Amino acid sequence: MKQVLASCVAVSFLVSGAAFAETAAPVAPMKMEKKVEQHKMEKKVEKKTEAPRKLTAQQEKMKTCNARAKGMKGEQRKAFMSSCLKKK
Hints:
This protein is mainly α.
């Protein structure tokens, strides 16, 4: 009798768990997708509202030296870039 009762209880948990899993599974990903989409939209708005950042002095120097080194390759470029970046 105890085994039959235990089996009935176990089966009822399994059935209720399966029914819950079927209804809960589709809802959770939809909520997550909405949150992801909302996050993406917030990031797009942030990017549009941010002012373009200024280049640092070192970045400006790199940009200038890189433009002047156009067409150079290998050791020649390496030597030029090194000397150009050391200049003040």
